[in-house]
Amino acid sequence: MLTDSDKKLVLQVWEKAIRHPDCGAEALERLFTTYPQTKTYFPHFDLHHGSDQVRNHGKKVLAALGNAVKSLGNLSQALSDLSDLHAYNLRVDPVNFKLLAQCFHVVLATHLGNDYTPEAHAAFDKFLSAVCTVLAEKYR
Ligand code: HEM
User: Where are its TM segments located (predicted)?
Assistant: First the structure.
């Protein structure tokens, strides 16, 4: 559960994150490199460094997270369609959501540096965990 102070920190992190419009693609590139098994969901993508497909997909993921940041009080509703898509159509194993969350933390740390304080990291981790939980909700 995100406290009011967590929510404030999440908004602050997000404001800084979106100054780096490719940070979604960077997180995806880290995901594919660090956890190569995740590439099996994207057989139709060019996954090489600098790929336009990964860049565009990163923007979509970032936009979805931005939408979630705006709906911190109601994540289930905000992410409902995306949850359906990942569970029923794409059948992404939910363990992979956590792997992508880890990669986002690393990307945020590289861009935000000292601004990604332990408190900001903890709050953003709660947020990403909540997103992962909602994305995995429909598997039950
Ligand atoms: C598609 C968000 C995690 C695999 C998408 C789309 C969004 C999105 C916004 C595009 C939906 C559309 O075009 O209508 C997210 C978010 C995630 C997440 C917010 C977690 C924080 C993952 C993970 C995987 C994955 C971990 C697999 C390792 C896919 C695939 C597509 C997709 C295969 C379809 C790509 C295409 O063909 O264009 N996701 N995703 N997603 N996602 Fe995710």
Answer: none
What distance in Å separates the CA atoms of residue 66 and residue 77, rounded to the nearest whole number?
A: 14
63-102 pLDDT, tens digit per residue, is: 999 999 999 999 999 999 999 999 999 999 999 999 999 9
Residue 20: name the closest of 100, 109, 114 by CA: 109
> Quick check: CB of 69 below 6 Å from ligand 1?
no
Containing structural domain, residue 117: 4-136
In this structure, what CATH number is given to the domain that contains residue 35?
A: 1.10.490.10
Residue 82, ligand 1, Cβ within 6 A: yes
CA of 86 to the centre of ligand 1 (A): 7
For ligand 1, whether the C-beta of 39 sits within 6 Å is no
Which of the listed residues 100, 107, 137 should we mutate to test ligand 1's pocket, taking the one with most ligand atoms within 8 A of CB?
A: 100
Task: Name the pTM for this structure.
Answer: 0.96
